[in-house]
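Researcher: Quick one. two chains, 359 residues in total.
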Amino acid sequence: MERDDIIEYSLDAHHSEEKGVEIRKKILQVTILLSIITAVEITVGVFMGKRVVAPGTWVLIKYGYIVLTLFKAWYIIKEFMHLGHERKSFRKVILYPYIFFIIYLIFILLVEGSAVFSNNNNFDWIQIFK
Amino acid sequence: MAGEASKAIDPKELWGGGRSPFSMSYGKMMMWFFLISDALTFGAFIVALGFLRYTYADWPVSEEVFFHIPFSHGHFPLAYVAFMTFVLIVSSVTMVLAVEAGHRMDKKNVIKWMAWTIVGGLIFLGSQIWEWGTFIAGPDGDISTWADNARIGWNPYGPPQYAQFFFCVTGFHGFHVFSGVIINIILFINVILGTYEKRGHYEMIEKGGLYWHFVDLVWVFVFTFFYLI
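Model:
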């Protein structure tokens, strides 16, 4: 039987020596970017930990971490996993359902987590409205 | 085409005939679908960690738990986990360089970069073992004194779920790294044997690479949500 899965499309992925130089340059740039972001995260983690900074600052740092993480994740997916260079429609097929489900999961579990917390600590929700 | 059911369909008009969904090979697309399902599993783990942290007012701070480094008794918060993160990022880079070399049919460089990727994976796995040993040993750093050792039901750092999530999340990720290293070794042997040279392309390196980058991607999230926040 002819193997139709390995012949036609894969060969399209070949590139020339010059294109290779260009791609390696891009890889180096992404590597440096990811290393710098990680270094920043670690430095902040070591010197501006939860116990050291004010609670308000900690909330900012927390959201900063999440933004930096998503930034790193996007670069890994886009460049290393090559999703940025696939068809736009394929990118959507992969990313949209996942993002949709995970946002719901984050929302519902964090809401439930707060509810369990207030239950455990006898937090009276009604008093807010009194 | 439509309305020609009485005629035998020429296979060339089907997927094999130059058309394919998203202009992608079947194997690569299925690897992406697998990664999405795996990402949902890891997503569930990490979101469940968020749930637990919302239910506890006093979750341990990782700078106060992970401050050991090998061969020293000094206090270096997060230093070793930073090293592990860096190793995994670098091994991801060497993997993408192997994929790039494969696109040029450059067998020698594919072998070189695959070898470095495997080395990076093994360093990470060894670090993970050391990290687990240190975590289990507890504050006194002695794994043979069982009383203060971290275990599933109890740990010296905080709520029992802290150790449970440490073992489950980093363990599940570590198992992915382990299988990734095995896959990379198989690919490495195939490259040396010339399997992909004969096939005319190195797409299998790309598929293995997708998996390996995914493992790195998961670690980026584990690092943020378990160690940093």
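Chain B has six helices and no strands.
Researcher: Thanks, that's what I needed.
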